[in-house]
Amino acid sequence: MKCTICGKEALIKLRHYNLKLCKDHFNEFIEGRVEKVIKKFKMFGRKNKVLVAVSGGKDSVSLWHILVKLNYNVEALFIKTAKDEIVQNTLEIVQKNAETLSSKLHVVDATEMFEGLSPQQIAFTLRRPVCSVCGVIRRYVMNKFAYENGFEVVATGHNLDDEAAVLLGNIIHWQEGYMERQWPYLPKTHEKLVPKAKPLVFNYEEDIRTYARLNGIPHVQEACPFSVGATSLMYKRLLRELEEEQPGVTLNFYLGFLRKKGEPRYVVEELRECEVCGYPTTATKCSICRLKEQLDKKMKKSPT
Ligand SMILES: [Zn+2]
Ligand SMILES: [Zn+2]
Questions:
Q1: In 88-206, at which residue ranges do the beta strands (DSSP E only) sit?
Q2: Distance 153 CA to ligand 2 centre (A)
Q3: Which ligand has the minimum distance to the alpha carbon of residue 273?
Q4: Domains of the chain by range and CATH?
Protein backbone atom coordinates (compact mmCIF):
# COMPACT_ATOMS: atom_id res chain seq x y z
CA MET A 1 0.00 0.00 0.00
CA LYS A 2 1.54 3.30 -1.09
CA CYS A 3 0.87 6.87 0.10
CA THR A 4 -1.39 8.66 -2.41
CA ILE A 5 0.71 11.81 -2.01
CA CYS A 6 4.37 10.79 -1.79
CA GLY A 7 4.37 7.14 -2.85
CA LYS A 8 6.15 5.96 0.32
CA GLU A 9 4.76 3.12 2.42
CA ALA A 10 1.26 4.10 3.55
CA LEU A 11 0.12 3.30 7.10
CA ILE A 12 -3.46 4.46 6.96
CA LYS A 13 -6.26 3.79 4.56
CA LEU A 14 -9.10 6.32 4.66
CA ARG A 15 -12.04 4.75 2.85
CA HIS A 16 -14.22 7.83 3.31
CA TYR A 17 -11.77 10.00 1.38
CA ASN A 18 -10.44 7.22 -0.86
CA LEU A 19 -6.91 7.99 0.34
CA LYS A 20 -3.91 5.99 1.53
CA LEU A 21 -1.44 7.99 3.57
CA CYS A 22 1.95 7.73 5.27
CA LYS A 23 2.22 9.07 8.83
CA ASP A 24 3.49 12.52 7.81
CA HIS A 25 0.85 13.06 5.17
CA PHE A 26 -1.89 11.74 7.42
CA ASN A 27 -0.91 14.30 10.10
CA GLU A 28 -0.73 17.04 7.51
CA PHE A 29 -4.12 16.04 6.17
CA ILE A 30 -5.88 16.05 9.58
CA GLU A 31 -4.23 19.28 10.72
CA GLY A 32 -5.01 20.87 7.37
CA ARG A 33 -8.70 20.09 7.81
CA VAL A 34 -8.64 21.78 11.22
CA GLU A 35 -6.99 24.88 9.76
CA LYS A 36 -9.58 24.86 6.97
CA VAL A 37 -12.52 24.85 9.40
CA ILE A 38 -10.99 27.63 11.52
CA LYS A 39 -10.56 29.84 8.43
CA LYS A 40 -13.83 28.93 6.70
CA PHE A 41 -15.95 29.78 9.73
CA LYS A 42 -13.71 32.69 10.82
CA MET A 43 -13.31 31.11 14.26
CA PHE A 44 -10.14 32.86 15.40
CA GLY A 45 -6.79 34.12 14.24
CA ARG A 46 -3.28 33.51 15.62
CA LYS A 47 -3.45 36.59 17.84
CA ASN A 48 -6.72 35.66 19.55
CA LYS A 49 -6.62 34.07 23.00
CA VAL A 50 -8.15 30.61 22.62
CA LEU A 51 -9.25 28.40 25.51
CA VAL A 52 -9.55 24.74 24.62
CA ALA A 53 -11.83 22.77 26.91
CA VAL A 54 -10.02 19.49 27.58
CA SER A 55 -11.91 16.54 29.03
CA GLY A 56 -9.05 14.07 28.70
CA GLY A 57 -10.64 12.16 25.82
CA LYS A 58 -8.93 11.70 22.43
CA ASP A 59 -10.85 14.51 20.70
CA SER A 60 -10.21 17.45 23.02
CA VAL A 61 -6.63 16.39 23.78
CA SER A 62 -5.83 15.95 20.07
CA LEU A 63 -7.39 19.34 19.32
CA TRP A 64 -5.11 20.89 21.92
CA HIS A 65 -2.05 19.26 20.28
CA ILE A 66 -3.15 20.36 16.80
CA LEU A 67 -3.80 23.99 17.82
CA VAL A 68 -0.38 24.19 19.51
CA LYS A 69 1.26 22.64 16.43
CA LEU A 70 -0.53 25.13 14.18
CA ASN A 71 0.86 27.97 16.33
CA TYR A 72 -2.39 29.24 17.74
CA ASN A 73 -2.40 31.19 21.01
CA VAL A 74 -4.01 28.44 23.04
CA GLU A 75 -4.34 27.49 26.71
CA ALA A 76 -6.36 24.61 28.14
CA LEU A 77 -9.07 24.25 30.76
CA PHE A 78 -9.84 21.07 32.67
CA ILE A 79 -13.03 21.05 34.73
CA LYS A 80 -13.04 18.80 37.78
CA THR A 81 -16.61 17.56 38.02
CA ALA A 82 -16.04 15.21 40.93
CA LYS A 83 -13.51 14.45 43.63
CA ASP A 84 -12.99 10.81 42.73
CA GLU A 85 -10.18 8.64 41.46
CA ILE A 86 -11.34 8.63 37.84
CA VAL A 87 -11.29 12.41 37.65
CA GLN A 88 -7.91 12.54 39.43
CA ASN A 89 -6.38 10.02 36.99
CA THR A 90 -7.80 11.92 34.04
CA LEU A 91 -6.35 15.16 35.36
CA GLU A 92 -2.91 13.52 35.62
CA ILE A 93 -3.10 12.45 31.96
CA VAL A 94 -4.14 15.96 30.95
CA GLN A 95 -1.23 17.41 32.98
CA LYS A 96 1.16 15.08 31.15
CA ASN A 97 -0.04 16.61 27.87
CA ALA A 98 0.45 20.14 29.21
CA GLU A 99 4.08 19.28 29.98
CA THR A 100 4.79 17.74 26.57
CA LEU A 101 3.19 20.69 24.83
CA SER A 102 4.60 23.35 27.19
CA SER A 103 1.09 24.74 27.12
CA LYS A 104 -0.68 26.36 30.04
CA LEU A 105 -3.35 24.29 31.76
CA HIS A 106 -6.02 25.76 34.05
CA VAL A 107 -7.97 23.54 36.43
CA VAL A 108 -11.33 24.54 37.87
CA ASP A 109 -13.09 22.55 40.58
CA ALA A 110 -16.77 22.71 39.63
CA THR A 111 -17.89 20.80 42.72
CA GLU A 112 -17.21 23.93 44.79
CA MET A 113 -20.33 25.51 43.31
CA PHE A 114 -22.39 22.70 44.83
CA GLU A 115 -20.64 22.19 48.15
CA GLY A 116 -18.66 19.25 46.86
CA LEU A 117 -21.48 17.42 45.09
CA SER A 118 -20.73 15.71 41.76
CA PRO A 119 -23.10 15.87 38.74
CA GLN A 120 -24.00 12.26 39.53
CA GLN A 121 -25.09 13.13 43.08
CA ILE A 122 -26.95 16.23 41.92
CA ALA A 123 -28.71 14.29 39.16
CA PHE A 124 -29.67 11.53 41.58
CA THR A 125 -31.09 14.02 44.09
CA LEU A 126 -33.07 15.92 41.46
CA ARG A 127 -34.00 12.83 39.42
CA ARG A 128 -32.49 14.27 36.27
CA PRO A 129 -30.24 12.63 33.66
CA VAL A 130 -26.56 12.87 34.65
CA CYS A 131 -25.52 13.97 31.14
CA SER A 132 -27.78 17.00 31.18
CA VAL A 133 -26.62 18.11 34.65
CA CYS A 134 -22.99 17.57 33.70
CA GLY A 135 -23.47 19.47 30.42
CA VAL A 136 -25.07 22.45 32.16
CA ILE A 137 -22.19 22.63 34.66
CA ARG A 138 -19.46 22.29 32.03
CA ARG A 139 -20.94 24.92 29.70
CA TYR A 140 -21.37 27.38 32.55
CA VAL A 141 -17.87 26.93 34.00
CA MET A 142 -16.24 27.02 30.55
CA ASN A 143 -17.91 30.29 29.64
CA LYS A 144 -17.41 31.96 33.02
CA PHE A 145 -13.75 31.03 33.18
CA ALA A 146 -13.12 32.20 29.62
CA TYR A 147 -14.94 35.49 30.19
CA GLU A 148 -13.22 36.28 33.48
CA ASN A 149 -9.78 35.48 32.10
CA GLY A 150 -9.96 37.39 28.84
CA PHE A 151 -10.23 34.50 26.38
CA GLU A 152 -11.84 35.46 23.07
CA VAL A 153 -13.13 32.04 22.12
CA VAL A 154 -13.69 28.59 23.65
CA ALA A 155 -12.78 25.62 21.43
CA THR A 156 -14.27 22.18 22.05
CA GLY A 157 -13.42 18.75 20.64
CA HIS A 158 -16.71 17.92 18.90
CA ASN A 159 -15.90 15.86 15.81
CA LEU A 160 -17.77 15.12 12.57
CA ASP A 161 -19.52 12.06 14.00
CA ASP A 162 -20.75 14.07 17.02
CA GLU A 163 -22.17 16.84 14.86
CA ALA A 164 -23.68 14.49 12.28
CA ALA A 165 -25.34 12.46 15.05
CA VAL A 166 -26.84 15.60 16.59
CA LEU A 167 -28.05 16.69 13.15
CA LEU A 168 -29.63 13.29 12.47
CA GLY A 169 -31.43 13.44 15.81
CA ASN A 170 -32.62 16.97 15.13
CA ILE A 171 -33.96 15.97 11.72
CA ILE A 172 -35.70 12.85 12.95
CA HIS A 173 -37.51 14.85 15.64
CA TRP A 174 -37.80 17.97 13.46
CA GLN A 175 -36.16 20.12 16.09
CA GLU A 176 -35.90 23.09 13.77
CA GLY A 177 -35.00 25.46 16.59
CA TYR A 178 -31.96 23.33 17.43
CA MET A 179 -31.01 23.08 13.77
CA GLU A 180 -31.14 26.85 13.58
CA ARG A 181 -28.44 27.07 16.23
CA GLN A 182 -26.31 24.14 15.03
CA TRP A 183 -23.17 25.64 13.48
CA PRO A 184 -19.41 25.10 13.91
CA TYR A 185 -19.00 28.60 15.32
CA LEU A 186 -21.33 30.50 17.61
CA PRO A 187 -20.48 34.20 17.86
CA LYS A 188 -20.93 36.52 20.79
CA THR A 189 -24.62 37.29 21.32
CA HIS A 190 -24.17 38.75 24.80
CA GLU A 191 -21.38 40.70 26.47
CA LYS A 192 -20.68 37.83 28.89
CA LEU A 193 -21.07 35.02 26.38
CA VAL A 194 -17.73 33.93 24.92
CA PRO A 195 -17.92 32.59 21.30
CA LYS A 196 -17.75 28.80 20.89
CA ALA A 197 -15.83 27.01 18.15
CA LYS A 198 -15.66 23.37 17.04
CA PRO A 199 -12.53 23.07 14.88
CA LEU A 200 -12.74 19.24 14.54
CA VAL A 201 -16.08 19.13 12.71
CA PHE A 202 -14.51 18.18 9.36
CA ASN A 203 -12.70 15.21 10.89
CA TYR A 204 -14.11 11.73 11.41
CA GLU A 205 -13.95 10.40 14.97
CA GLU A 206 -12.07 7.35 13.70
CA ASP A 207 -9.39 9.60 12.18
CA ILE A 208 -8.92 11.54 15.41
CA ARG A 209 -8.53 8.22 17.23
CA THR A 210 -5.88 7.22 14.69
CA TYR A 211 -4.20 10.64 15.03
CA ALA A 212 -3.97 10.25 18.83
CA ARG A 213 -2.63 6.71 18.57
CA LEU A 214 -0.13 7.42 15.80
CA ASN A 215 1.29 10.43 17.61
CA GLY A 216 1.37 8.78 21.03
CA ILE A 217 -0.95 11.37 22.57
CA PRO A 218 -1.90 10.31 26.13
CA HIS A 219 -5.67 10.32 26.70
CA VAL A 220 -8.34 8.44 28.59
CA GLN A 221 -9.82 5.52 26.71
CA GLU A 222 -13.26 5.12 28.13
CA ALA A 223 -16.19 7.29 27.20
CA CYS A 224 -18.11 8.85 30.07
CA PRO A 225 -19.78 5.92 31.90
CA PHE A 226 -23.06 7.85 31.99
CA SER A 227 -23.28 8.36 28.25
CA VAL A 228 -23.94 4.66 27.65
CA GLY A 229 -27.34 4.37 26.04
CA ALA A 230 -27.50 8.07 25.25
CA THR A 231 -29.58 8.64 22.14
CA SER A 232 -26.76 10.48 20.36
CA LEU A 233 -24.73 7.27 20.57
CA MET A 234 -27.56 5.43 18.83
CA TYR A 235 -27.48 7.93 15.96
CA LYS A 236 -23.71 7.59 15.81
CA ARG A 237 -24.05 3.82 15.54
CA LEU A 238 -26.58 4.19 12.73
CA LEU A 239 -24.27 6.55 10.85
CA ARG A 240 -21.37 4.12 11.27
CA GLU A 241 -23.48 1.36 9.77
CA LEU A 242 -24.36 3.57 6.82
CA GLU A 243 -20.71 4.51 6.48
CA GLU A 244 -19.80 0.82 6.07
CA GLU A 245 -21.99 0.64 2.97
CA GLN A 246 -21.40 4.15 1.69
CA PRO A 247 -17.96 5.49 2.70
CA GLY A 248 -18.10 9.29 3.04
CA VAL A 249 -21.83 9.47 3.67
CA THR A 250 -21.45 11.08 7.12
CA LEU A 251 -19.29 13.88 5.76
CA ASN A 252 -21.62 14.48 2.81
CA PHE A 253 -24.61 14.52 5.12
CA TYR A 254 -23.06 17.17 7.37
CA LEU A 255 -21.56 19.25 4.56
CA GLY A 256 -24.91 19.20 2.77
CA PHE A 257 -26.52 20.67 5.88
CA LEU A 258 -23.92 23.44 6.11
CA ARG A 259 -24.34 24.23 2.40
CA LYS A 260 -28.14 24.27 2.55
CA LYS A 261 -28.04 26.48 5.58
CA GLY A 262 -25.54 28.83 4.00
CA GLU A 263 -24.94 31.61 6.47
CA PRO A 264 -26.49 30.93 9.86
CA ARG A 265 -29.11 33.31 11.10
CA TYR A 266 -28.74 34.03 14.76
CA VAL A 267 -32.28 34.47 15.84
CA VAL A 268 -31.27 33.37 19.31
CA GLU A 269 -33.77 34.17 22.02
CA GLU A 270 -33.32 37.46 23.78
CA LEU A 271 -30.62 36.95 26.41
CA ARG A 272 -30.68 38.70 29.74
CA GLU A 273 -28.56 38.49 32.85
CA CYS A 274 -29.35 35.97 35.57
CA GLU A 275 -30.72 37.86 38.56
CA VAL A 276 -28.53 35.82 40.88
CA CYS A 277 -25.13 35.46 39.20
CA GLY A 278 -25.32 37.93 36.32
CA TYR A 279 -24.40 35.46 33.55
CA PRO A 280 -26.49 35.31 30.36
CA THR A 281 -29.68 33.26 30.29
CA THR A 282 -33.03 33.19 28.50
CA ALA A 283 -34.93 32.97 31.80
CA THR A 284 -34.82 35.17 34.89
CA LYS A 285 -32.35 32.78 36.53
CA CYS A 286 -29.68 30.74 34.71
CA SER A 287 -29.70 26.93 34.71
CA ILE A 288 -26.92 26.76 37.31
CA CYS A 289 -28.69 29.05 39.77
CA ARG A 290 -31.90 27.11 39.21
CA LEU A 291 -30.04 23.85 39.90
CA LYS A 292 -28.71 25.32 43.15
CA GLU A 293 -32.17 26.46 44.14
CA GLN A 294 -33.74 23.05 43.45
CA LEU A 295 -30.97 21.36 45.43
CA ASP A 296 -31.46 23.70 48.40
CA LYS A 297 -35.18 22.93 48.44
CA LYS A 298 -34.56 19.16 48.31
CA MET A 299 -31.99 19.35 51.08
CA LYS A 300 -34.34 21.31 53.33
CA LYS A 301 -37.13 18.83 52.76
CA SER A 302 -35.05 15.78 53.54
CA PRO A 303 -32.10 16.71 55.76
CA THR A 304 -29.73 13.79 56.06
ZN1 LIG B 1 3.17 10.40 2.13
ZN1 LIG C 1 -27.09 32.42 37.52
A1: 105-109, 153-155, 185-186, 196-197
A2: 21
A3: 2
A4: 33-264 (3.40.50.620), 269-304 (no CATH)
